[in-house]
Amino acid sequence: MSAIADLAARQLAAYNAGDLDAFVDCYHPEVVVMAGDEVTVEGIAAFRERYTDLFTHWRFGASVPTRVHHTTHCIDLEDYWRIDPETGERTEGRVLVHYALRDDRIGRVRFLD
Question: What is the extent of the structural domain holding 97?
Answer without folding.
Answer: 3-112
